[in-house]
Amino acid sequence: MVKRVRPVLMTAADGRQREQSPLPGTHVVADGGYPLRWIAHHEVFTFWKHEVQPHLYDETRPYLADYPNEYFYWPSEWRSHSGETIILLERAH
């Protein structure tokens, strides 16, 4: 069983520093119509820096057109039954 802990909003007020490095935990991408994409631990930093960071949802940029290639990631934090932190990155396009 997995339980949602909280949405993780990145805003100019609180998120700029956190955007520079991945949030701690196992990362998985949910993109409607496709299987979940689990990011290998050794690839998380590169994936975050080159793929997630430019597309990370920020409430000051609410439109798809505000992001490169018109998609963004909406992150949320989840907790597995064993206590593992999972960062779900829901891709909106």
- Helicity, as a percent range: 10-25%
Shape annotation: globular
Radius of gyration, whole Å: 13 Å
Low-confidence stretches: none
Largest sheet: 5 strands, mixed
Characterize the structure shown.
With about 90 residues, the protein is an alpha+beta fold. The protein has one domain (about 1-90). Helix content is about 15%, strand content about 30%. It has a five-stranded mixed sheet, with no helix packed on it. The longest helix has 9 residues, at about 45-50. It is globular and about 40 Å long.
Q: What are the key terms here?
A:
globular; 93 residues; 5-stranded mixed β-sheet; 5 strands
Question: Brief description of this entry?
Answer:
This protein is an alpha+beta fold.
What is the strand and helix layout of this fold?
Blueprint: E1 2-7, H1 16-19, E2 26-30, E3 37-38, H2 44-52, E4 72-80, E5 85-92
Parallel strand pairs: 2-5
Antiparallel strand pairs: 1-4, 2-3, 4-5
